[in-house]
Every structure is written in structure tokens, then in C-alpha cells.
Amino acid sequence: MSLYDQIQEAVDFIRSKTSFQPQSGIILGTGLGNLTDELDIQAEIPYTSIPHFAKSTVESHKGKLMFGLLGKHPVVVMAGRFHYYEGWSMEQVTFPVRVLKFLGIQRLLITNASGGVNPHLKAGDIVVVKDHINLLPEHPLRGPNDERLGPRFPDMLFTYDEALRKAALAAAEKHNIGHIEGVYSALQGPNLETPAEYGMLRAMGSDCTGMSSVPEVLVARHMNLPVLMLSMVANVAWPRAAIRETSVEDVIAVGRAAEPKLTMIVKTVLEGC
């Protein structure tokens, strides 16, 4: 079965479970799953029941699609994402984004937790991502291209939607939320980066770094889907003297503390859509 046919099978299954029509998709990162508490939920579908979906194995990821209203805006939320380091292929990691596109979403909001390599960042700050550096060892568009999904060679100049970025920056400013507009870098994981790697990333122009999101962005761009990425800084990773040992529990704790700020930005952005 082709990737296109797998997508249609998943879409048909989801539509058999709910007639709710989302306008925007949201992907929730580590420690950021409680945004779903703000939803007026219309339907929930576990990943394990959706054809061709992988199974999220990361702590704090709920592993289901949630449909509902965030404020007055109809959304579908991925409560938990898939990561390359879990052992999934890039096609499996990004498959849900393709399904969301075929469900009819008009934009994709991606959140994640990251290490801050810009020395001006503090734990809990938000990076409104304007560009990325892809250092992952595999690519979701590798292999035969299906023109029904997108072009063979997608251009990356306008990957991160300018209007959505401006709306997010204005929301952060309005609500006095610590933020910058910056560059996200992606590495394979699952180990956190070494001090030398943090230094390399900063020298390359990265402001924050993580283990996800870029594959999802690449596939969204392939399908001409506008993207906003918001990265929550979970730990200070530069300068070298500021680096401390960090556990997943630390990341989750910082994420939960910063989540109301991220939720406020997301809700404010979607109010204008």
C-alpha cells in the first residue's frame, strides 16, 4: 500500500469516528500536554486505534488525537508526538502531519521543549522559531516522491509563516512572556548534547536545540502547510559554565510551569485566524 493510500485509510477511519472539522492542528511536546485541559473536547481517538499510526512511548505524551474548541477556534491536537530516537522511521514520525493536512487543517502549530544555547535565554522562555538547522541523520522526504503529496524539491525560504510568527511575538509581548525569535536545531538524541556540541550549535547560529519537530516541519512544507513553531526552553545549555545535569523529570517540571504562557500564546494566535 502506498503512503498516499495509507493516509486516506487513516483519514477515513478518523472521519468514521467524528465529523468535527478542525481549522488548525497543534502538536504538543514533552511536558506541554496539559494544554488539552483548555479544550472543549468533541472527540478523542487513541493513536493505537488509527491505521498506520505509531505508538508514542515518551513519558508525559498521552498518545491520542483530540478534537475540540480552543476558545472558539476548532482544532485537532496531537497529545504526544513520535520521535526518530524511539526507533520509528521518518515516514512514521511524520505520518500524522500528513493525515492532519488531509483532514483539512489550514495551519500547523508545533510545540517542543529544548535546550537554550542562546546565553540570553532562561528556563521557561519561549523561542518563536524563524528558521532551523537540520542535523538529523535521516530525512522524511527521502525516496520516491508522490506528487499528490508535494513537490520533489520543496523550497525552504518561507517555511515558518511570517504572519503566524508576528502574531506569536505580539502575543508574547502583550502578555509579558520572556521570548525571542530564533533558530532551532535538531539532533537525533535521545542523549542530551555534550558541552562541546552545545558550543558547536551556538557557533552555527542556533538559539535552542532539541530532538524533534524538524521532520514534521519538512513534511508540512512539502504539503504547503503554514507552520508556527514555539519552543519552550527547558534548560540553559550555554555558556558552558551554566550547563547542569538535566533529567526528563526536570524537563517535564519546567514545561508544566511554563505551559500557561505557551497556551496563552497559542490561544491568542488562533483568535486572529
Quick summary:
The chain is of the alpha/beta class and 273 residues long. It has one domain (3-271): Nucleoside phosphorylase domain (Rossmann fold, 3-Layer(aba) Sandwich).
Strand-helix topology:
Elements: H1 3-17, E1 24-27, E2 39-46, E3 64-70, E4 73-79, H2 90-102, E5 107-116, E6 126-134, H3 162-174, E7 179-186, H4 195-204, E8 208-210, H5 214-222, E9 227-236, H6 248-271
Parallel strand pairs: 1-4, 1-5, 5-9, 6-7, 7-8
Antiparallel strand pairs: 2-3, 3-4, 5-8, 6-9
Helix pairs in contact: 1-2, 2-5, 3-6
Report what the structure shows.
This protein has a single domain (3-271), classed as Rossmann fold (3-Layer(aba) Sandwich). Helices cover 31% and strands 24% of the residues. The protein contains six helices and nine strands. The protein has helices at 3-17, 90-102, 162-174, 195-204, 214-222, 248-271, and strands at residues 24-27, 39-46, 64-70, 73-79, 107-116, 126-134, 179-186, 208-210, 227-236. A five-stranded mixed barrel has the order 5-8-7-6-9, surrounded by four helices. Strand 3 (64-70) and strand 4 form a beta hairpin. The longest helix has 24 residues, at 248-271. The model has no long low-confidence stretch (mean pLDDT 94).
Beta strand %: 15-25%
Predict the CATH topology. Answer: Rossmann fold
Which segments are poorly predicted (pLDDT under 50) over 5 or more consecutive residues? none
Question: CATH architecture, please?
Answer: 3-Layer(aba) Sandwich
Structural domain count: 1
Helix content: 25-40%
What is the overall number of helices?
6
Structural class: alpha/beta
Question: Numbering strands along the chain, what is their spatial order in the largest sheet?
Answer: 5-8-7-6-9
Cα-based radius of gyration, to the nearest Å: 17 Å
- By CATH, the superfamily comes out as Nucleoside phosphorylase domain
Distance from N terminus to C terminus (CA atoms, Å) equals 36 Å
Number of strands: 9
CATH class: Alpha Beta
Shape by Cα distribution: globular
